Amino acid sequence: MSTSKPSRILLIVIICLCSALAFSILALLANIFEKKVEGKNPFFRVVELTDDTEDPTIWGKNFPQQYDDYNRTVDMMRTKYGGSEGIPREPTEDDPRDVTSYSKLDIIPQLKLMWAGYAFAKDFREERGHAYMLEDQLFTGRHIVPQPGTCMNCHASVYVPFKKLGDGDIIKGSEKFNPMPYKEAMKHVKYPVSCIDCHDSQTMELRVTRPAFIAGIREVKALEGIPDYDVNTMATHQEMRTFACAQCHVEYYFKGDQKRLVYPWSKGLKVENMLEYYDEVGFKDWQHKETGAPMLKVQHPEFEMWSQGIHAQAGVSCADCHMPYQRVGALKISDHHVRSPLLNINNACQTCHKVSEDNLLKRTEKIQDRHVNLVHTTLDALVDLIYDIKKASKKGVSEDKIKIAQDFQRKASFYVDYVEAENSSGFHAAQEAARILGESINFSRLGQLALREDKN
To answer: Mean pLDDT in runs of 10 for the chain (456 residues)?
Structure first.
């Protein structure tokens, strides 16, 4: 019995559908297999990298997505109290930049008096992205005071120069590099911070390459009861997502004629621990032009401030917020466009905080609003103390009282500078920042009281 024409058509349709379904399943399986292979092989070795490959463009051949993100650190985008905004300027022979960031000395005029007699009173600008870190230091107005090579530890890719100068030993290399005059040291560096400063060229594992951090974190861990700590072999991967950043985002000073870079952590990571250290070794950065007080200049203690905050206690690393993971195909990689989390709230914040972007932004800015107001109040108190010391000196107040007031000025300035120099506008540890500012105000008022004549 012959098959009817409609039945044959139905059979053909069924065969076609089954074939299409089978093809789709095979394509899906092939895609899944491809993604699995891609996931197991996070990069394709286009070029061979060595422990001397410092040029990020070469690394970019193997890691194009990360390199593309890294290049985006040229972006200049403002947040309410941070980020960077491109300010046009007329290039000069001494400074060929046609764009820079705004001067904090114009925004916070009290800083000029706080730093009177120091290079920061000449030039202090909002920080720009990593792409600008070397050129912005090269052309800063602070070079009115001779700078050592040590300054580049946090502004340039120095791992390979250290290796070359030390015949493979980065510690010995840093000892040769640091005391060099700045212009001489510049001959040894080519790039701002680069891939090799944070990654092992063969395994891509995170690592620490700054000798000062290796020594400093060893002292911190010793206080925690962990002797002979080696950050590159003993830290967890999550810890390294902070430590790689903390190589540079810290308080430090240049020790002795060798200008050795030292993180003052032997007594702990709190502001009072560091002040105690400086007082014990008798260190000062400069003598205040208006009062003669022996002063300290704080750098950028993001790591120390973060360590006192709620995110640190919760195990959240620097990279979790500033370089959050992102999906690129089957790969999960860190976003190398390092920037404020407020410019990337979805990835940086909402992974943990299940509320709207607008809500998170408003909550953050409320913290920062209060913080900035308190910073200005604290600086005003310090300015009052400086003026009072000047007046007291002219009136012939006893030298003993002047010295007591100068010591309080040193303390008050160090505390408020510690908070102002830290780049989160209070967010990394809001309560700790408020505590430090309160202590600074108290030091300023105690300094004023010390100048009063005794009343019998």
So the answer is: 64 77 73 55 82 97 96 90 86 92 94 97 93 94 94 96 97 97 96 97 96 98 97 98 97 97 98 98 98 97 98 97 92 94 96 96 97 98 98 95 98 98 96 98 98 68
HEC assignment per residue over the chain: CCCCHHHHHHHHHHHHHHHHHHHHHHHHHHHHHHHHHHHHCCCCCCCCCCCCCCCHHHHHHHCHHHHHHHHHHHCCCECCCCECCCEECCCCCCCCCCEECCEHHHHCCHHHHHCCCCHHHCCCECCCCHHHHHHHHHCCHHHHCCCEHHHHHHCCCCHHHHHHHCCCCHHHHHHHHCCCEHHHHHCCCCCCCCHHHCECCCCCCECCCCHHHHHHHHHHHHHCCCCCCCHHHHCCHHHHHHHHHHCCCCCCEEECCCCEEECCCCCCCCHHHHHHHHHHHCCCCEECCCCCCEECCCCCCHHHHHCCCHHHHCCCCHHHHHCCEEEECCEEEECCCCCCHHHCHHHHCCCCCCCCHHHHHHHHHHHHHHHHHHHHHHHHHHHHHHHHHHHHHHHCCCHHHHHHHHHHHHHHHHHHHHHHHCCCCCHHHHHHHHHHHHHHHHHHHHHHHHCCCCCC
**Distance (Å, whole) CA 73 – CA 369:** 26
Asked if the structure places residue 434 within a domain, the reply is: no
Asked, for residue 216, whether it belongs to a domain, the answer is yes
Domain holding 232, by residue range, is 56-352
Answer yes or no: is 89 within a domain: yes
CATH at residue 311: 1.10.1130.10
Instruction: Tell whether 404 is covered by a domain.
Output: no
What is d(CA 76, CA 85) in angstroms, rounded to the nearest whole number? 5
pTM above 0.85, yes or no: yes
Domain count across the chain: 1
- Beta strand 99-100 pairing with 253-255: unpaired
